[in-house]
Amino acid sequence: MPASLVRIDDPKKASAEKKFSIGSAGAQSTTDLYQFVSLFFGLAGIFLKMRLFLWQGLFFCIVSFLTGKQVEGETKQVFSSFSITLVGLAMSYMGPQAALFQ
């Protein structure tokens, strides 16, 4: 190899290298908490017939979708809580017993 192409000094420092990590466990646990809370509010809103719980469930479902990673299992959980909340809202505003909801 010609002498002009060989570099003697390497700009990388072995002591400054950092291992790559995908993420922290704290962010995943808050997303799981938001999913659980949204599912809880959605089911509580349907069973207790309270629109406020349904709107809170929709809010937490959107937050969990926006803050979470796009993993297949997590997407299914978000979709199930979102669909439960939307069905509850549809029942509360358009159902035959809409007067029972507060």
UniProtKB/TrEMBL annotation:
Q: Where does the source fall among the domains of life?
A: Eukaryota
Organism classification, top ranks? Eukaryota, Amoebozoa, Evosea, Variosea, Cavosteliida
Native source organism of the sequence: Planoprotostelium fungivorum
Full protein name: Protein Asterix
Report any Pfam family annotated for this entry: ASTER
Compartment list = Membrane
Q: Which GO terms describe its biological process?
A: protein insertion into ER membrane
- Family, similarity comment: Belongs to the Asterix family.
| GO terms for cellular component | endoplasmic reticulum membrane
Mind telling me which residue stretches traverse the membrane in this protein? 39-66, 78-95
Keywords, sorted A to Z: Membrane, Transmembrane, Transmembrane helix
Does the entry feature the keyword Transmembrane, yes or no?
yes
